[in-house]
Fold Oxysterol-binding protein.
Amino acid sequence: EDPSKSYKLRFVAEQVSHHPPISCFYCECKEKRLCVNTHVWTKSKFMGMSVGVSMIGEGVLRLLEHGEEYVFTLPSAYARSILTIPWVELGGKVSISCAKTGYSATVIFHTKPFYGGKVHRVTAEVKHNPTNTIVCKAHGEWNGTLEFTYNSGETRVIDTTTLPVYPKKIRPLEKQGPMESRNLWQEVTRYLRLGDIDAATEQKRHLEEKQRVEERKRENLHTPWQPKYFIQEGDGWVYFNPLWKA
């Protein structure tokens, strides 16, 4: 409501490869002079009543005001009770490091034990690598209350449920490009909302077959797929016009 106290986040995402299915996203806030660039692809596996999805890749958060870069990995995701009442949890270890400051963090997302235990638990440690000192520890729920304890004895509590949630703004469907997700998958989405799984499956099959035909055409013409917003650099992908190059 108060423009002087609000900031605008700009976000773009693109699937840059089909085999493997690599997705990239870039987000920036010019007012705060920060931006995030991430590439990730997934590996899925079935585990009885659950599906596990490993997130392979990394992101870089840049704080331009301080000249700092934080490289981070991503947790795995698990869809539980897929045949009854599904729910999702995160699991695994996430690493965060900043070469300039010498600080690093290890964040562990704990999956719920088969019997008892809490859901969405997370623990973390922040280390100053040059002195091998643990400067902060944290524990709680990643979607609930988190408590931070510093080596000075100070503690801080953050309740994520009280943080404001801002709705995202997207272009109207008629102004989106033909390859944008909401446009491309709109018929599948419509039938899913109607509960017609057979029709949604048919629309999905039709869309994927169309994409296979286009892929065969590119192979015959020896024309590689060209992403629109991201450029490959080494093993990663970088947004074509990032804030740090502006």
Observations:
- The mean pLDDT is 93.
- The radius of gyration is 21 Å.
- The CA atoms of residues 49 and 82 lie 6 Å apart.
- The helical segments are 181-184, 186-194, 197-220.
